[in-house]
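B., you asked whether I could sanity-check this one before it goes into the benchmark set. Here's the sequence:
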Amino acid sequence: MPNNTIYDVIIVGGGPAGLSASLYAARALLSVLVIELGLPGGQAFNTDAIANYPGFPGEITGPELTQRMEEQARSFGAEFVTAEVTQFAPEQRVWACTTTEGVFRSKTLIVAAGAAPRRLAVPGEAEFTGAGVSYCATCDGAFYRQKEVVVVGGGDAAIQEAIFLTRFADRVTVVHRRDELRATAVLREKAFRNGKIDFRWNTVLEEITGSTKVEAVVLRDVTGGKVETFKTDGVFIYVGTRPNTDFLPAEIKRDRQGYIITDAAMETGLPGVFAAGDIRQKLLRQIVTAVSDGATAAVAAADYVDNW
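And here's what the prediction gave me:
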């Protein structure tokens, strides 16, 4: 698949940041290649209902929104390839991206590889992933019809997915280490009104047990230390994310959590390399901020290409 083409910009990642960047770059008449490991859309693709994206009163699904973004970028000439980027490095005046489909070259790079769900790192988590442990209610919720599940976390993602899971499960128990949710007020109130959702406050999950699939979790009350075994059919984990930065060269500066440090123009400090979206150090990680980052990075990349 790789050829002798030197693209104006290669975008690593096809989530909202990458899709926005591809649209803005293609509209600026740059040659654009988006390299995405899976389906375009990133984490947003796995979101059942998006109610806070401007211009869509009510709700829109993640797949519908991100598919529209992809179609729009393609309509202006952006190219897409399914591959994993394993590294990139300078090669004379261009950047060479080594992928599982070969090497692609470009004048600029926009790193928009996003972030992945953070693991709890408790006994049983790895063993039962795919056998009762999940990080995506939209993907796996239908497997839990008339069953009982546990959701770990108290932020927007955890509560939104807990609400979604009540479409299938008879009981959803939210386990949160604090005594109040971090989710937005709208989601909190919606969850509190849902008769299928219970809450275990000041509680952490310490172990996931079972034979061939999840059968129970071990919970500990952080205030009194009481430990109990709680029966459940599934565990959905939403305790934050970690940036997908393993393929990056050491020269790209990152904070202590591994997120890329950029300036206001999304520049990373390496010439012609920009970053956008959840992979970047920032206050708010939402679709709307990812799209903004992508647009900014594309405009900055276009300026760089003009002076290449």
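One thing to flag: Residues 60 and 191 are 19 Å apart (CA to CA). Otherwise nothing jumped out at me.
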